[in-house]
């Protein structure tokens, strides 16, 4: 009920708040609370947001802010951080003036390099990132360093693999952004979200991966003027495709770049779906950060189903996504190493029958389902 009230409030106030966010008047800096929410295991983030949007993102279920946003120099790194902490957020951002002092900040999860070094012209020299990394590690060896790439460049070969291998020496956590709909006008490329994650995991020798997810029509100069943003169904598909491919968090990119910049151009229906999926991600967070697809179990399904599995707390979870825009009835999901005659369907409260080691279920367009069992190994 609390979640339903929060979503209602979000939809009621989203327009005025998002309109007000374009002000350049700095807000008073709230005091940090004496205590804070538990450190998140699965990160649900928003990219480069100023303090006057924080309440909206809190209602949407965000737990982590990625990137310090100064609003043209009117807000200091410390003011931004104090405000974020007062609202209950953790954050990943550039170091402040004193990295050693930063290391004592309980809300700082990681430091962050400048975005997308692989798309600069010319590409950023990897030695520069490595120098920053080494300096930051001297100041605070235990603080991870995050680096985000263009997923399009990763998959498109515009930057040599060897350059990425050098970049990856300067990172502990690795992200990428692939915006199939608004970045390329190619809704048929949603599969590249997970493909970019897989490629960077391989190149980085299994460093933790994060995926940026598009939420708005970005109005980019290189796409047709009428290029749209994601639908709610496509947003859900991108989130869970990244999750099935093993990310440790998702980061929403809500900006409108062209035809008048906006920090948050997420349409209300997309925002509602985002909030719904964030709640589900938070519920399953401890399972989602366990090793991807442990080999003592097996799950198989035919396209267009995408499946993955996790084991946590003595429970076995099967993640299943209809990776298509059409309904598919009676889809078999074959299980190996799982006992019992039924599985709990996590979000609809029913028990799904297991016959001959197989679940059979119906899926709507881009629908995701999670099945839970007692782990038997």
Report on this structure.
It is globular and about 60 Å long. The protein has helices at 2-20, 54-59, 77-86, 99-102, 126-139, 151-156, 161-168, 180-184, 192-203, 232-244, 268-283, 285-288, and strands spanning 43-47, 64-66, 90-93, 108-112, 145-150, 173-177, 209-214, 249-253, 298-300, 305-312, 315-322, 328-336, 342-345, 351-355, 358-363, 368-374. The chain folds into two domains: 2-288, TIM Barrel (Alpha-Beta Barrel); 298-374, Golgi alpha-mannosidase II (Immunoglobulin-like). Helices cover 31% and strands 24% of the residues. The protein has 377 residues and is α/β, with parallel strands linked by helices.
Quickly list its features.
377 residues, alpha/beta, TIM Barrel, 2 domains, 8-stranded parallel beta barrel, 8-stranded antiparallel sheet, 16 strands, 31% helix, globular, disordered N terminus
């Amino acid at each position: 009920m609390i979640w339903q009230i929060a979503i209602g409030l979000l939809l009621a106030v989203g327009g005025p708040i998002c309109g007000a966010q374009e002000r350049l008047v700095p807000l008073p800096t709230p005091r940090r609370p004496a205590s804070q929410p538990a450190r998140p295991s699965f990160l649900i983030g928003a990219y480069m947001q100023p303090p006057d949007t924080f309440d909206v993102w809190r209602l949407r279920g965000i737990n982590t802010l990625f990137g310090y946003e100064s609003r043209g120099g009117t807000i200091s790194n410390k003011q931004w951080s104090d405000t974020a902490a007062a609202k209950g957020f953790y954050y990943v951002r550039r170091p402040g003036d004193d990295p050693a002092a930063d290391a004592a900040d309980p809300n700082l999860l990681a430091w962050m390099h400048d975005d997308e070094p692989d798309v600069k012209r010319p590409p950023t020299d990897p030695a520069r990132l490595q120098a920053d990394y080494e300096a930051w590690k001297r100041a605070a060896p235990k603080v991870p360093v995050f680096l985000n790439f263009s997923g399009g460049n990763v998959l498109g070969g515009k930057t040599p693999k060897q350059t990425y291998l050098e970049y990856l020496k300067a990172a502990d956590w690795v992200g990428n952004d692939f915006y199939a709909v608004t970045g390329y006008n190619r809704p048929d490329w949603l599969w590249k979200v997970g493909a970019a994650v897989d490629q960077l995991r391989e190149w980085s020798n299994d460093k933790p991966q994060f995926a940026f997810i598009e939420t708005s029509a970005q109005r980019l100069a290189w796409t047709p003027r009428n290029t749209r943003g994601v639908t709610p169904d496509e947003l859900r598909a991108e989130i869970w495709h990244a999750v099935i491919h093993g990310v440790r968090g998702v980061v929403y990119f809500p900006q409108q770049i062209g035809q008048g910049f906006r920090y948050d151009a997420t349409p209300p229906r997309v925002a509602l779906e985002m909030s719904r999926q964030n709640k589900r991600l938070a519920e399953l967070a401890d399972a989602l950060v366990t090793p991807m697809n442990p080999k003592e179990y097996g799950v198989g399904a035919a396209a267009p189903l995408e499946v993955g599995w996790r084991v946590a707390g003595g429970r076995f979870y099967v993640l299943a996504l209809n990776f298509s825009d059409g309904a598919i009835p009676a889809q078999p999901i074959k299980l190996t190493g799982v006992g019992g005659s039924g599985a709990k369907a996590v979000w609809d409260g029913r028990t799904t029958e297991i016959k001959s080691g197989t679940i059979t279920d119906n899926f709507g367009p881009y629908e995701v389902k999670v099945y839970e069992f007692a782990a038997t190994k």
